[in-house]
Amino acid sequence: MAQTVSEMDVLEKKVRDNIPYLQEHISDVKIIVDYLIEMHVINLNDKTKFLNDRISRKDQIHDILEEIITRKKFDVLIKALEKTDNDTAVEILTTNDKEFADFIENQEEAVGSSTKDIAKLEAEKSTLEIDLAHIQTVERDIRKLLEEKTTRIEASQTGNNDKKQLEKDVKKLQEELKVLNKEYKEKTEFVKTITQQYDEVVALNKILQDQKREKDRKERDNDREQREEDRKERDHDKEQREKDREQREKERQERDHDRDQREKDRKEREIDREERVKERKLRDLEREKRDQDREEDKKERNKDREERKEDRKLRGQENEERKKDIEQREKEREQREKDTQSHEQLHKNVDLILQIIGQQNTKDGKCGRNETSEASETREASEANGPPVLRKNNAYDLRTESIRKNYRM
């Protein structure tokens, strides 16, 4: 587990150190995002966030790298870079740094050893700085002495032996100066190396301390979250027990209520059964009464039917009598019409006869007038007496007889 965590830390450091380079050289951001979504590193709903057109490509890559660092999915990032043919970026992130990996294999030892290395490097750096200062002092003295010797050679009027000696001294000083310059350069390079190592160790120590603090913080956060979860679970268990208790109480009340309801229903059924018995008895009494009423109604209907039969017979007899009366009145009316017609015809005949007789009497004189008077009286008497049908036939017979007599005459 320590080795896995250390490898993650190495990759994280490499990613963080190379973010500017990756921002410049990574291409095909969409392919990387699609692969990360496929590997469930990024949610599908967050695709638009990482491919937002309103931000630059560098910002998009920076957001993706921050998400990778947060989720510790560096191997997925390397595979995504391989898909986009970013070989240089892949090579940077997969460089074998065994020394660094071994150095941070155990973070606690690394922190302690890095602290010792920092002190050691600081001591070596101080010693080298003192040596460099001494070399610079000696170099200045040699240069000063060299200048003096050179000046003396140039200004000297002495013999050749002294001049040769001065030239030898100058050469020796020049050689010493070269040696000092070489030593100074070597120590300067060594100081630079020590300084670089010191900076790297300080940075590494800071990273390790930050990681340790972050780890401690995460552990404290996890402990706090665990305690909070335990507290929530206890509260939840307490609430659940309270709910269970309330549920049991509710079920007990429901059982009591059901028992009371069943008892109440049983009593109601008893009451209903008694009421049904009473109703059945009442229905039996009502049925007997209805049977008696129907029997009495039947007798009354039979009696009414007999009475209606008698009434129909009487009405039939009355109708027959009315028909006979109507026929009789019709016959009498027809007879009166016939008599009236006969009477009118008789009057016409009498008037005609009287006219004829009058004409004859005019010829015969007085006899004719008397007969005419008699005939007129007879007609007036006939008219005063009415139609012959409604009276006796005496007047009719007398008048007829008178006419006959006049006619004979």
Automatic annotation (TrEMBL):
<dbReference type="InterPro" id="IPR001315">
    <property type="entry name" value="CARD"/>
</dbReference>
<feature type="compositionally biased region" description="Basic and acidic residues">
    <location>
        <begin position="398"/>
        <end position="409"/>
    </location>
</feature>
<protein>
    <recommendedName>
        <fullName>CARD domain-containing protein</fullName>
    </recommendedName>
</protein>
<dbReference type="GO" id="GO:0042981">
    <property type="term" value="P:regulation of apoptotic process"/>
</dbReference>
<feature type="region of interest" description="Disordered">
    <location>
        <begin position="211"/>
        <end position="349"/>
    </location>
</feature>
<feature type="compositionally biased region" description="Basic and acidic residues">
    <location>
        <begin position="363"/>
        <end position="382"/>
    </location>
</feature>
<dbReference type="InterPro" id="IPR011029">
    <property type="entry name" value="DEATH-like_dom_sf"/>
</dbReference>
<feature type="region of interest" description="Disordered">
    <location>
        <begin position="361"/>
        <end position="409"/>
    </location>
</feature>
<feature type="domain" description="CARD">
    <location>
        <begin position="7"/>
        <end position="72"/>
    </location>
</feature>
